[in-house]
Amino acid sequence: LNTSQTGIHGDIQVRWDPPPTADVQKGWITLEYELQYKEVNETKWKELEPRLSTMVPLYSLKMGRDYEIRVRSRQRTSEKFGEFSEILYVSFSQTGIEFVHCAEEIEFPWFLVVIFGTCGLAVTVILILLSKQPRLKMLIFPPVPV
Question: HSE (CB half, 13 Å, CA atoms) of 63?
Fold first, then answer.
């Protein structure tokens, strides 16, 4: 972390490893990386030009702000990028910098399973009771004349 003399802006160096499935060490594939970053409250990502290096400096980030950083790669000969990495949260404070690596977890909606399961069970019980009671069956499902 390098801070400006005024303490308003800071620079960081972001590094990452290539995807584990890509054999870039032996030179079979050459990958380009695109880094995107934004402040946590913003909606639009700022993109840096694709580059071959696995480290990128980010300049003039505002102190006292939180940033999100993500990276994606593509083969140099390809037009399309792969999926983005997990988001790296960077928090700038006046005393230093904090990195928070957070994987977005999706929780299974168990409450919906319970609600639909209960409704399904209730409908099944009602249908069984109605099929066993001939008078109720005749009342609810009148015979159709032929």
Answer: 14
Contact 1, 55 (CB under 8 A): no
Domain segments of the chain as ranges: 2-101, 110-140
For residue 64, the number of C-alpha atoms closer than 13 Å in the C-beta half-sphere is 3
Residue type present at position 81: F
Instruction: List pLDDT tens digits, range 18-71.
Output: 887 777 777 778 899 999 999 988 999 999 999 988 989 888 888 888 899 999
pLDDT at 5 over 70: no
- Helix, strand, coil percentages (3-state) for the chain, rounded to 5, are 20, 35, 45
Question: What is the CATH number assigned to the segment(s) 2-101?
Answer: 2.60.40.10
Q: Hey, how many other C-beta atoms are within 10 angstroms of the C-beta on 67?
A: 21
Separation of alpha carbons 67 and 64, rounded Å = 10
**Integer Cα distance of 56 and 51 in angstroms:** 9
Dihedral Cα 68, 74, 80, 81, nearest 10 deg = -20
